[in-house]
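ENTRY TYPE: paired fold submission
RECORD: A
CONTENT: sequence, then structure tokens
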Amino acid sequence: MKKLMFTALLMMAGTAAQAQAWTGKGDQKINAGFSVWGYGTGIAGTYDYGLNRLISVGAGLNVYFDNYRNNDDDNRAFVFGRLNFHLKDALELPEKLDIYPGVDLGVVGRDFGIGAHIGARYFFTERIGVFAEVGNNGSLGVAINL
């Protein structure tokens, strides 16, 4: 029984050791969570695609439940494109951690929306981690490595 437990622990440690927060070109990440400040409170989802070791582009959608911009029903969603600059290599961060400043550009209802953020992702396994972003639009949640 001890050998079985030891083997299981080694296998899990090996999986966690392979987790990488950012690999660069072709890397794909999905963030899903809660929008906790900014245009309103609600749910947030983003997708990022790596162009190279430094830059990713993507898109996102935030849907607001409460305190949305001007409390106008037309402003319950923010649809946007995003550009991030990944600092994992520049800051020599551990493989499981990535810090990225970025900008968001899109529409909120019928209005133009722009924002800036700084985010961080930490991966527990090869596929699953957590993220947090602060700025004009902040969110917290689960990060998925595709």
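RECORD: B
CONTENT: sequence, then structure tokens
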Amino acid sequence: MKKLWQRFSLILPVLGLGLLAACSSLKEGECRRDINCKGKVEGLAACYKEPLDAEIGKCMTVKEARAALAAYKKRSSGKCVDKDGDGVRGGTACTGIVDCNDDDPAIKPGATEVCDGKDNNCDGNINEGIKGCTGTMLGGKQEPVVKFMVTLPSGVEVAPNGDVWISDEHRIYRMDAKTKVERIAGSNKPGNDDKKGTLARLDRPRGMAVDGAGNVFIAECRNNCIRKLAPDGRLTRYAGFCRGEPDDNGLDLEGNWDTARFWCPIDLSFDKDGSLVVVDMLNSKIKRIGKDRKVSTIAGKGGHEDDDGYTVFGYSNGPAMKAEFNEPAGIAVGKGGEIYIADSKNHCIRMLKDGKVSTFAGACENGSDKGGHKDGPAAKAKFKLPNSVDVGPDGAVWVADTGNHCIRKIQGGEVSTVSGTPNQQGYYDGKMASALFNGPQAVAVGANGYVYVIDTGNYRLRVLVP
């Protein structure tokens, strides 16, 4: 037996040299057999050839090779024609510049985008950049699906560098200036794992705030905590318990970042001092996480028990610690440091300034079955379950008026409906006044004045260009 192994030990190096000699003419990434690709790609390697009897192939993973083969078969069996006569051919057999919809002459690569609810220039967006128009940038569960489907979009934020961040059911996406979308953290599975990229786990992330260094702070409702997403994609606990259930400290506690407790924190923003202000929704309180990461309540006295032992929440203005909210859901900080709060189940927009809470807009009515729609003077206007608020570069306050299926603006003491038809849910891209939404849940305004909207019921990220 020993002599047999000795013979093999002499033969194997010769075989190895033979393989190296046979592959010496290959360029980087080229191959003749799968074994040529070993160690050249991350994962299970394959030598993909097109056509299949080609002598030289390209190294890629097995997953990539399967996708490439499927695309090759599709091209080989398809057609490439110009059915609509617009000068650009379409079809699965086409290469190079391809018409994304060869049934419509108004749609082709390089066409001028117009406000017609179509992706005229085939760039993967609908009605983008057109003044006075509402369009779609991402998502959908029925045609047209833009880029890809999302599961349950719920939050949006525009970073200082212009990137748009989107929170989905258990994932965080980033859309860059070229509208390319990339998943940065999370997966299809819920959890609270502090890991990197797709290995990290989240559970119902909602509002976000992005600092100048590119860190994304996330209000994570189901995990009852605030998470921090670093520029390298690593997710860590920033404040709170990060579990779906309470521990011995309950779900409402001030103190150090690791002992503090939240109950469905749903939105957050940086105040003028650089601290984070957080909407602790199910505690009906506004809290602050200082730069030292200590958590304190800055507004809202919380709920009280009724005669039947149920915790109920009310509505009252006055000193911040005595004021009452009813499931506040959105927050934004103005240029003067004032804090705007979408007080969802009081159906109005509140303001925290100089230690006092007042009503900024809307005829506040306590109760989930109240609210309505009315434009006009801020004090007499009506909202229905407003869930999000943001401040534009001109100081205008924008509101996702969820229960009315529209986007509102507060400016100069007046409330107006900018996009959407009150009390009519649906999906339509076009002129802002004619657009339709289905339970818009979040709103964020960029430095360019673009208003990004999470249209939750339509599973889309929409954009308004006022």
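NOTES ON RECORD B: The mean pLDDT is 93. The first strand starts at residue 30 and ends at 31.
STATUS: closed
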